[in-house]
């Protein structure tokens, strides 16, 4: 009962925020709407016993990524409103909406079919890497255990991803210099990463 | 049927996730500001996160929640690089929209 | 002696090869003498073979000599071999004989021609080919000669190729002949497919097509088909309706060529061939000989009427040749093979003579061929005139010249064929033709050798050219052949005098070959004599008539345009070939370019077009691309879901 | 060592100690070498104040690539040894089998060649710095991860490592607007498709309960063949719709990376705009890695569901073959032509994938290995010819090259003919093996379509050859022959081929021709490299 | 069926020799065209000598493959380097060996001689390979590889619209090969599945024990047939040929007509009749019809051509129609005639193209309308042209006739009415060639042609071997025929073998021969009177 209400409210916030992102003419408004959605999702994480994730969601997404967005918007001064009345690409918008709705449609059909055939949408094997509902352990501990056992390799290689992000940002943010000669490391514009 | 009879099953979350994913996808298709387009991608990734967590609970499996971490990291890395590309782009062509960068075609 | 047969064609071949490489070095007149020598050698060899054959009893007068296997392929075993029998020897004799004379004649006629030696190259090659045709022991060797003489004919007609007309005439001859060859080839295919052999008579392992044993197993249908197809070949080569077209044009060649190839020898190859395969004719349905006879008779009449109105000295002779060849086919159709061969031989004599005489006239008149500009020439070239007159009397069927005997025999055999009234009608056609022949030949003689010297009546404009035109008699090398042929034309009838069996030398000689197929004529001797006499008298009357018209100018000449234009047949065919025919070819070529190749290019353009449309989807807008991905995802999910349970 | 490290962590925690999985280091060495090499180069470039010696980073990258390959050799021996065989490591996240090792070689080879091409290119364009090499190496490590991933999440991460680095690589030439455009397009579309891919993983996870491919395969195996680990009733009814949708979405993600139609639209624009050496890398290593993932997931893990996905891979293959070939016909930019041709090649490899058999997989492996050298060679020539600014890539820029640069023109012609599938080049055998597999799977119409598309594509290759060899008129050619002055002046405008690029082209050339004559070694290797699903965990 | 390798790998040497020559050329300095030419000549003559050696070593009267050279190439796919020669390929090999040196001598590339000769040598190696290969895969490799050198030869040293012609040639042929490759792989795989043995591409192994259903064989045959039809070329896929011929340099035309067109007809025999006997018999009516269409259609279109080379090109279509007719007559005469005619056509059309090349060298035009009266100024060339032309027309005593006659004799046995039409081609051949000859050589030379130089000694020497062979084969073809015969008889026996082929080769209706023809020693078997 409570969960229904929570779900309903969160869903409204999430969807509303999502529409906000898409429909706001000013990118700053879009970013703020995104925050709303992210918060709504965090709430639903909590509702599904993913407390730690909810916290990370708020901190990393709302706290870092959206801030980064806003930072770039300000940096580039692109906070001008976008004219959403016109669509320069003929047919793009109706096609996008039809295509999107169709995509949603097939996704729903898939769920309905699965539900019809199997009485559940989650047909998978249960608790392959660890029981979520095991009361003996904290959620964080469970996550930590799985992260360092079953997903150890994945965890390790995320570091490569981050290195790439750093190098990539460095490369891209560097000013295009003259025809020849390399740019000194000290002169590089760097973008701070909030990790 | 009362509200009390209703149970929030994973299907609800899945449907919500699908809706969110769709909105994100449509957003990317209709918006011209590259930054907003990136936000739409974030919406899609969050929709997937929601789906993972929902499955995680339905399957009683920790794995689904752990995956969300990785998605977060990927999202962060993507945003960094994506914004880097936009910054580089906007420097030479301030105020460019996604439709403006279309010199190569055919 | 018989083993010498290979020498007969080998000598001209050697002559040809030597002249090809050394002809120019030998030069004039040595090359001509050499060629003549080779042809004369062939004649000598033929005589030797003839003597050898005479030595044998009649029933053994057949000898085959195989040089090597030519086309040994599976069941097909074609040898390069010679067949010596009375027929082939008879042919070879007059081919080499007349050939030698014409070689000799050519030495004079081709005097000072820049391509003197080349002419003899061709002549020797022709002699070789003709002898292969005659002596071949199977259809394919005959065909080798058959095509060879065709090619030589082409070379020689187009000998003075600088003039387009000559070149065209040569081409026309070759191609028209090829139409006939088509039939010849099909006949060979059919013979092989039906009997498994192309050889005439059994020889070692090779079964003979014409042997009774083989024939007995052939259906009448097949035999008729083979013979009929061969007849198509004969029609082409012997210039019968409807393929005679090339022969009048072939007069573009040097006159000795006309004499040798287009009168005496090559054109009679068809008659030889039909005689050779007479067993097939006899074995087949009877409508085929009748058809042959009809075509022969019609050709004879047709050509004779056309000859009435020709003014070119050689064209008259050409149509006359066509007409006489028609006679021979009438004989073939009537089953009178001996008569056909007889007429062939006498015709070779007198027509060769007439052509050579005409050549002498042309030579003496400095290449003038129009009879309207001749006249009274007998004073200037007496030998030519005299011999020409002998030939004239022979062809006109005047007793006792050779033509009388042979022509008479043909007419008798048509009359006496019996059966349907058709044969009587054919006889009548032949009879009328005989009268016409006497008439137009007289016309020619009178126009050329008698009357006013019209060549003096030149327009002043031509004075410069004609002032020194003085007809002159030819050199002795040209006259000797004339004389010899004149004699032969006169006495040639002695070969086969109808008085008694013992005087029918030719018939007796050919007995082993055609005896079984020759039709016996049951016309009483008295009737035969009567016919001969009447024909001869009426021919004489025709001559008189001609004299009234062309000598005494008492009567208006009847030379309708339709005759002069040969019933417009040639024009019609030419117009068709040059008009709709060429158009159709052109259309086909256009079809190839536009439709067939166009389809190919079309596919290419289609790909290009598709690409140019498809590339519009590649707009350059990243949002369009993303839409593509989204739609693709939708489609893929949709497709995958079709496999969902239920 | 690692175990000890994690052990320390565990002790400080309240919960029970975490039993970290054994890490089979030697199986990871090639990947680690690539990453370490990248980090070392990055560090060195950051430390050095002065401009480094020319080519030092390129040399370092090449050395790194070779070391990685060298360390892969014993690994190859191990996994192809019938007594030892393939296995999966680190909690089953990594598959150590011939398949992954094969791709290590292919990707490292691409790295080495691309680095050699990049050296001269970067100097010419005034871009010299270490970052490109670092990114190539890191991207390659992502590719290796993808190829050896036995877990969808690992595969996703590998894909992202590979891709994000590639986005940066595409946008690297900052002075070129086209390069930025390429980076932008690549990034937006890449991220978009990644989201689909991820969604697909989520659905597969929900439908099977795991992201581990081994477990997924066990789950997907119909009841009766392998003792089911889950409720047998579930699968007796067939694949759940959500699993199918997930598969479809995975296919979207892979389809994007391998440039399958209709997910191909980025390819021409990116290939045209991106710096040419990085295009060479993308067309070879990135494509190879993406195919590795596709093969591993579909052909291996979902082998028993092949009736579910085969028809749609079939459809993708047909569309890819035809669109790639047809659109290439009307292009005028050589890089764009090669881009479309790479789409066509992707279609060919999809034909091998579609066969869903060991033969199909091995043929795809052969194709990828052979194609790597062909395409690196082709783009290498373009990189050399494109001149300063990377601008001269239109067809006209190649006109008369046979006279100015006979050797380069000949080499390029061979690469092009190899791509067209002319015998006695590796490209022919690549096509042959793929067709063989396809026909063995009774997909005759597909095989025929592939060949017909090859005919259309041949037009494109020949157009370039025409431009190089046959553009001058007859008279011009004779003139040049006759007059040494003209010939000399023509030769004056010669292109300078950088040393390293020359070596790279030579290597690619030798490989292309060599495998064209003697494909046995590579064919056997690709056959040995066919992965199996149930590898024991080590 | 495959005998062990012979002691000397003569056939391998035959292929390797020109290839090595090309490699050597590539290493020579490009500034020395005369050395380049010499080296090219040495290697092509060497290959020619080797081909003569093959002829000398060939054991007369033994069917099957001689001088077999067998090495493993790609063992895992059952692909082998298997070479062998039998009566059917023997003279094509010799023809190739003879024609290449002549083509190299007969025309000057004018520019870039080094790559020109190198490509020619590569082409020679490829042509040898096609004729010698006894492995489906190997065959295909060579069949395809010859495209490349020819493409470059046309495109780089050709005339006029050469680029387009080269492209058309390449794509057209590749289009056909696409079908063949699919069919070829399918054959091997189905053979493997049908017999349960290992995968093999061995021609003899597959042909003698196909293990493939008859209906499937028909489809496979069609796949091969499309490739061969394009290469031959047959109507309606012939349109690449006139373009390629016209724009190709002289040597290219000579080789294209002389050797490369035979790849198609040879393929029909080796990979049509031998590999799929039943299907060949099944499709024989179609193939024969196409052949006959080619004969008449090619001739008609040739007649109206304004370009001398184009005319000869269309005449090739007609001639190759004859070869197809003979091949699919499925009789010993037809096939032997077909094989012989391949050689004949190579000689006569090769010679014709050389002659047209000589004319082009002098006048820089091939347009018939611009040539006139050449016989007057160049009688020797005219005579040579005439002889070659007569061979092409099919005059008895020259080689062309022997082939055509055998073909039609053979085809008449099984395809009577087709042959009747085909024989019309003989008339048409005379028409278009004589007309062309008349326009070019007859008449009075106009100003442009008055200075036309006579044939040079070198050119004459070049033509001499061709002319010698033209005459020799016309007069005494027995040495050739008796080497072809055992192989063809074996082929016929193979077709009639109920285990692999049709019971009756011509048994699809129509006319059965009234007399048995395929047995080695037939007699004039009696025809039953009805």
Structure write-up:
The complex is a heteropentamer of chains A (195), B (106), C (646), D (538) and E (530). Chain B is mainly alpha-helical and 106 residues long. Helix content of chain B is 73%, strand content 0%. The longest helix of chain B is centred in the C-terminal third of the chain and has 30 residues, at 63-92. Chain B is elongated and about 60 Å long. In chain D, 75% of the residues lie in helices and 1% in strands. Chain D is built from 23 helices and two strands. Chain D has helices at 2-12, 25-47, 56-80, 98-125, 131-148, 152-170, 177-208, 213-220, 232-236, 241-258, 266-273, 276-301, 306-329, 334-355, 358-385, 401-404, 406-420, 426-440, 444-469, 474-482, 484-492, 499-517, 520-528, and strands at residues 87-89, 94-96. In chain D, a hairpin with a 4-residue loop joins strand 1 and strand 2. Mean pLDDT of chain D is 86; it is low at 1-13 and 223-230. By secondary structure, chain E is mainly alpha-helical. Chain E contains 21 helices and two strands. In chain E, helix 14 (332-363) packs antiparallel against helix 17, helix 14 packs antiparallel against helix 20 (457-475) and helix 17 (399-414) runs antiparallel to helix 18 (416-441). Residues 501-530 of chain E have low confidence and may be disordered. Chains in contact: A-B, A-C, A-D, B-C, B-D, C-D, C-E, D-E.
Q: Which regions of chain D have little confidence, pLDDT < 50, spanning 5+ residues?
A: 1-13, 223-230
Shape of chain C: globular
Rg of chain D, please? 23 Å
With strands numbered from the N-terminus, the spatial order across the biggest sheet of chain C is: 1-2
Compressed to H and E, one letter per element, the order of chain D equals HHHEEHHHHHHHHHHHHHHHHHHHH
Beta-strand portion of chain D reads: under 5%
Q: Helical content of chain D, roughly?
A: over 70%
Rg on CA atoms of chain C, Å: 31 Å
Helix/strand class of chain C: mainly alpha
Tell me roughly what share of residues is in helical segments of chain C: 55-70%
- In the sheet with the most strands of chain D, the strands line up as 1-2
Main sheet specs of chain C: 2 strands, antiparallel
Protein chain pair with the most extensive contact, residues per chain: A-B, 101 and 76 residues
Calculate the terminal CA-CA distance of chain C, rounded to whole Å.
101 Å
Number of strands of chain D: 2
Overall strand count of chain C: 2
Number of helices of chain D: 23
């Amino acid at each position: 009962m409570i969960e229904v209400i929570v779900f309903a409210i969160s869903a409204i916030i999430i969807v509303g925020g999502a529409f906000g992102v898409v429909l706001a003419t000013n990118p700053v408004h879009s970013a703020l709407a995104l925050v709303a959605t992210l918060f709504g999702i965090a709430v639903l994480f909590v509702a599904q016993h993913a407390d730690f994730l909810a916290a990370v969601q708020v901190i990393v997404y709302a706290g870092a990524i959206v801030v980064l967005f806003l930072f770039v918007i300000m940096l580039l001064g692109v906070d001008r409103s976008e004219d959403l009345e016109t669509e320069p690409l003929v047919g793009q918008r109706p096609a996008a909406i039809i295509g999107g709705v169709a995509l949603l449609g097939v996704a729903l059909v898939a769920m309905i079919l699965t539900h019809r055939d199997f009485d559940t949408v989650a047909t998978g094997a249960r608790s392959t890497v660890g029981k979520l509902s095991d009361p003996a352990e904290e959620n964080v501990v469970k996550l930590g255990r799985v992260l360092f056992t079953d997903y150890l390799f994945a965890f390790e290689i995320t570091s490569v991803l981050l290195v790439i992000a750093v190098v990539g940002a460095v490369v891209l943010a560097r000013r295009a210099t003259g025809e020849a000669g390399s740019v000194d490391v000290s002169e590089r514009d760097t973008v701070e990463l909030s990790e | 049927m009362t509200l009390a009879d209703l149970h929030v099953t994973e299907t609800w979350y899945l449907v919500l996730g699908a809706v969110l994913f769709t909105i994100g996808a449509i957003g990317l298709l209709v918006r011209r500001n590259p930054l907003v387009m990136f936000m739409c991608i974030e919406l899609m990734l969050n929709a997937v996160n929601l789906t993972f967590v929902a499955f995680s609970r339905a399957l009683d499996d920790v794995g689904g929640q752990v995956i969300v971490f990785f998605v977060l990291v990927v999202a962060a890395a993507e945003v960094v690089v994506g914004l880097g590309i936009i910054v580089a782009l906007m420097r030479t062509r301030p105020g460019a929209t996604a439709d403006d960068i279309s010199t190569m075609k055919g | 002696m018989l083993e010498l047969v290979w020498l007969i064609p080998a000598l001209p071949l050697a002559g040809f090869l030597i002249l090809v490489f050394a002809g120019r070095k030998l030069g004039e007149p040595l090359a001509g003498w050499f060629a003549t020598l080779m042809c004369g050698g062939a004649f000598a060899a033929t005589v030797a073979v003839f003597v050898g054959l005479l030595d044998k009893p009649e029933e053994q007068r057949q000898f085959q000599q195989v040089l090597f296997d030519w086309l040994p392929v599976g069941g097909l075993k074609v040898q390069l071999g010679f067949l010596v029998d009375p027929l082939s020897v008879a042919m070879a004799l007059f081919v080499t004989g007349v050939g030698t004379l014409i070689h000799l004649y050519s030495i004079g006629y081709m005097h000072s021609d820049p391509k003197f030696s080349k002419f003899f190259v061709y002549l020797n090659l022709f002699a070789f080919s003709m002898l292969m045709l005659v002596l071949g022991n199977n259809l394919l060797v005959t065909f080798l000669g058959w095509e060879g003489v065709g090619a030589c004919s082409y070379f020689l007609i187009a000998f003075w190729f600088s003039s387009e007309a000559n070149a065209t005439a040569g081409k026309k001859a070759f191609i028209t002949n090829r139409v006939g060859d088509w039939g010849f080839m099909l006949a060979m295919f059919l013979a092989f497919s039906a009997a498994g052999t192309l050889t005439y008579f059994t020889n070692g392992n090779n079964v003979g097509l014409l042997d009774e044993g083989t024939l007995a197993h052939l259906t009448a249908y097949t035999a008729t088909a083979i013979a009929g197809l061969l007849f198509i070949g004969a029609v082409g080569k012997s210039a019968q309706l409807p393929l005679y077209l090339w022969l009048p044009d072939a007069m573009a060649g040097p006159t000795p060529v006309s004499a040798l190839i287009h009168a005496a020898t090559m054109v009679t190859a068809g008659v030889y061939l039909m005689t050779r395969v007479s067993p097939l004719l006899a074995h087949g349905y009877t409508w085929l000989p009748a058809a042959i006879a009809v075509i022969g008779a019609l050709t004879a009449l047709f050509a004779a009427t056309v000859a009435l109105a020709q003014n070119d000295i050689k064209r008259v002779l050409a149509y006359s040749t066509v007409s006489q060849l028609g006679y021979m086919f009438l004989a073939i159709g009537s089953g009178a093979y001996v008569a056909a061969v007889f007429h062939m031989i006498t015709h070779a004599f007198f027509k060769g003579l007439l052509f050579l005489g005409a050549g002498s006239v042309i030579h003496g008149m400095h290449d003038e061929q129009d009879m309207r500009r001749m006249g009274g020439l007998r004073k200037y070239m007496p030998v030519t005139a005299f011999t020409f007159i002998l030939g004239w009397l022979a062809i006109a069927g005047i007793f006792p010249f050779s033509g009388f005997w042979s022509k008479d025999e043909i007419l008798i055999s048509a009359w006496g064929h019996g059966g349907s009234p058709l044969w009587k009608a054919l006889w009548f056609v032949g009879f009328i033709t005989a009268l016409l022949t006497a008439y137009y030949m007289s016309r020619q003689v009178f126009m050329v050798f008698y009357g006013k010297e019209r060549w003096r009546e030149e327009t002043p404009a031509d004075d410069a050219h004609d002032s020194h035109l003085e007809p002159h008699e030819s050199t002795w090398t040209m006259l000797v052949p004339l004389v010899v042929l004149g004699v032969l034309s006169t006495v040639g009838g002695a070969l086969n005098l109808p008085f008694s069996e013992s005087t029918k030398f030719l018939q007796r000689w050919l007995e082993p070959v055609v005896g079984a197929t020759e039709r016996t004529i049951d016309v009483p001797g008295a009737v035969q004599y009567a016919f001969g006499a009447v024909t001869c008298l009426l021919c004489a009357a025709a001559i008189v008539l001609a004299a009234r018209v062309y000598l005494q100018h008492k009567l208006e000449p009847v030379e309708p345009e339709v005759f002069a234009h040969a019933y417009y047949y040639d024009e019609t065919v030419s117009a068709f070939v040059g008009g709709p025919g060429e158009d159709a070819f052109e259309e086909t070529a256009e079809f190839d370019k536009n439709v067939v190749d166009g389809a190919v290019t079309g596919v290419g353009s289609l790909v290009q077009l598709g690409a140019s449309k498809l590339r519009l989807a590649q707009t350059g807008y990243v949002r369009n691309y993303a839409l593509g991905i989204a739609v693709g995802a939708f489609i893929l999910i949709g497709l995958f879901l079709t496999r969902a349970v239920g | 060592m690692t175990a000890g490290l994690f052990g320390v962590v565990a002790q400080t925690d309240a919960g029970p100690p975490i039993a970290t999985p054994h890490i089979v280091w030697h199986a990871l060495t090639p990947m680690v070498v690539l990453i370490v090499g990248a980090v070392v180069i990055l560090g060195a470039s950051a430390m050095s104040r002065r401009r480094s010696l020319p080519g030092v980073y390129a040399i370092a990258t090449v050395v790194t690539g070779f070391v990685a390959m060298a360390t892969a050799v014993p690994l190859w021996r191990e996994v192809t040894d019938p007594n030892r065989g393939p296995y999966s490591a680190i909690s089953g996240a990594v598959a150590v089998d011939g398949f992954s090792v094969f791709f290590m070689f292919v990707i490292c080879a691409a790295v080495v060649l691309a680095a050699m091409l990049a050296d001269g290119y970067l100097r010419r364009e005034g871009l010299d710095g270490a970052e490109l090499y670092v990114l190539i190496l890191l991207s390659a490590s992502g590719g290796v991860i993808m190829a050896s991933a036995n877990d969808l999440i690992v595969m996703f991460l590998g894909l992202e490592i590979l891709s994000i680095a590639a986005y940066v690589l595409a946008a690297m030439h900052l002075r070129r607007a086209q390069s930025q455009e390429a980076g932008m397009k690549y990034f937006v579309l890449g991220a978009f498709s990644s989201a689909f891919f991820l969604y697909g993983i989520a659905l597969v996870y929900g439908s099977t309960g795991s992201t581990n491919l081994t477990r997924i395969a066990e789950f997907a195996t119909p009841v009766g063949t392998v003792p089911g680990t889950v409720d047998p009733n579930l699968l007796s009814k067939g694949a759940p719709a959500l699993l199918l949708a997930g598969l479809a979405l995975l296919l979207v993600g892979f389809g994007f990376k391998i440039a399958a139609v209709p997910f191909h639209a980025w390819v021409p624009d990116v290939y045209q705009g991106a710096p040419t050496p990085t295009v060479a890398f993308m067309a070879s290593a990135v494509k190879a890695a993406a195919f590795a993932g596709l093969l591993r997931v579909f052909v291996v893990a979902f082998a028993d569901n092949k009736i579910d996905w085969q028809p749609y891979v079939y459809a993708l293959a047909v569309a890819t073959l035809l669109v790639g070939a047809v659109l290439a016909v009307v292009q005028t930019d050589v890089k764009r032509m090669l881009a479309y041709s790479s789409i066509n090649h992707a279609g060919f490899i999809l034909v091998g994938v579609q066969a869903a058999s060991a033969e199909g997989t091995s043929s795809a492996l052969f194709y990828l290995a052979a194609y790597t050298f062909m395409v690196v060679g082709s783009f290498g020539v373009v990189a050399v010819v494109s001149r300063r600014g990377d601008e001269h890539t239109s067809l006209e820029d190649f006109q008369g090259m046979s006279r100015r640069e006979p050797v380069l023109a000949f080499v390029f012609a061979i690469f092009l003919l190899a791509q067209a599938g002319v015998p006695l080049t590796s490209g022919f055998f690549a096509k042959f093996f793929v067709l063989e597999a396809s026909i063995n799977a009774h997909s005759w119409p597909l095989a025929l379509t592939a060949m017909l598309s090859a005919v259309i594509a041949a037009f494109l290759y020949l157009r370039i050859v025409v431009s190089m060899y046959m553009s001058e008129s007859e008279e011009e050619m004779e003139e040049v022959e006759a007059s040494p002055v003209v010939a000399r002046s023509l030769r004056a405008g010669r292109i300078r081929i950088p040393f390293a690029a020359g070596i790279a082209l030579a290597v690619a050339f030798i490989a292309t021709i060599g495998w064209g004559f003697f494909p046995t070694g590579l064919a056997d290797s690709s056959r040995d490299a066919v992965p199996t699903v149930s590898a024991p965990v080590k | 069926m495959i005998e062990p390798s012979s002691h000397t790998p003569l056939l391998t040497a035959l292929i390797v020799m020109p290839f090595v020559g090309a490699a050597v050329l590539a290493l020579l300095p490009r500034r020395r065209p005369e050395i380049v030419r010499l080296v090219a000549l040495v290697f092509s003559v060497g290959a020619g000598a080797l081909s003569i050696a093959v002829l000398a070593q060939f054991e007369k009267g033994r069917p099957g493959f001689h001088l077999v050279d067998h090495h493993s190439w790609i063992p895992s796919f059952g692909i082998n380097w298997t070479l062998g020669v039998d009566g059917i390929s023997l003279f094509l090999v010799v023809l190739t060996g003879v024609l290449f040196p002549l083509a190299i001598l007969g025309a000057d590339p004018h520019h870039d001689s080094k790559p020109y000769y190198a490509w020619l040598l590569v082409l020679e190696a490829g042509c040898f390979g096609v004729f010698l290969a006894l492995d489906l895969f190997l065959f295909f490799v060579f069949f395809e590889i010859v495209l490349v050198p020819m493409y470059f030869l046309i495109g780089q040293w050709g005339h006029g619209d050469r680029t387009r012609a080269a492209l058309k040639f390449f794509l057209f042929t590749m289009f056909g090969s696409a079908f063949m490759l699919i069919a070829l792989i399918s054959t091997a795989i189905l053979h493997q599945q049908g017999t349960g043995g290992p995968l093999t591409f061995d021609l003899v192994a597959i042909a003698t024990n196909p293990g493939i259903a008859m209906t499937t064989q028909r489809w496979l045959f069609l796949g091969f047939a499309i490739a061969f039809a394009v290469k031959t070329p047959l109507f309606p896929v012939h349109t690449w040929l006139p373009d390629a011929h016209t724009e190709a340099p002289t040597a290219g035309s000579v080789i294209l007509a002389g050797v490369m067109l035979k790849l198609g007809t040879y393929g029909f025999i080796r990979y049509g009749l031998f590999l799929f006997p039943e299907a060949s018999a099944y499709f024989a009516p179609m193939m024969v019809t196409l052949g006959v269409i080619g004969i008449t259609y090619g001739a008609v279109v040739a007649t109206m051509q304004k370009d001398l080379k184009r005319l000869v090109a269309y005449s090739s279509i007609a001639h190759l129609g004859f070869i197809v007719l003979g091949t699919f007559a499925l009789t010993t005469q037809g096939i032997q005639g077909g094989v012989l005619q391949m050689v004949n056509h190579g000689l006569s059309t090769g010679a014709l193209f050389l002659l047209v090349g000589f004319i082009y060298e002098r006048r820089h035009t091939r347009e018939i309308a611009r040539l006139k009266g050449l016989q007057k100024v160049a009688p020797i060339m005219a005579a040579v042209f005439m002889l070659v032309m007569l061979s092409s027309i099919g005059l008895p005593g020259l080689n062309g006739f022997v082939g055509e006659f055998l073909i039609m004799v053979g085809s008449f046995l099984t395809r009577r009415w087709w042959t009747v039409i085909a024989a019309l081609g003989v008339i048409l051949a005379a028409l278009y060639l004589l007309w062309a000859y008349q326009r070019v050589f007859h008449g009075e030379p106009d100003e442009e042609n008055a200075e036309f130089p006579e044939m040079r000694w070198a050119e004459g020497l070049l033509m001499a071997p061709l002319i010698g062979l033209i005459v020799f084969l016309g007069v005494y073809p027995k040495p050739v025929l008796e080497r072809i015969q055992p192989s063809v008889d074996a082929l016929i026996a193979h077709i009639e073998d109920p285990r692999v082929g049709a019971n009756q080769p011509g048994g699809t209706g129509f006319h059965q021969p009234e007399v048995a023809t395929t047995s080695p020693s037939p007699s004039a078997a009696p025809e039953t009177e009805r």
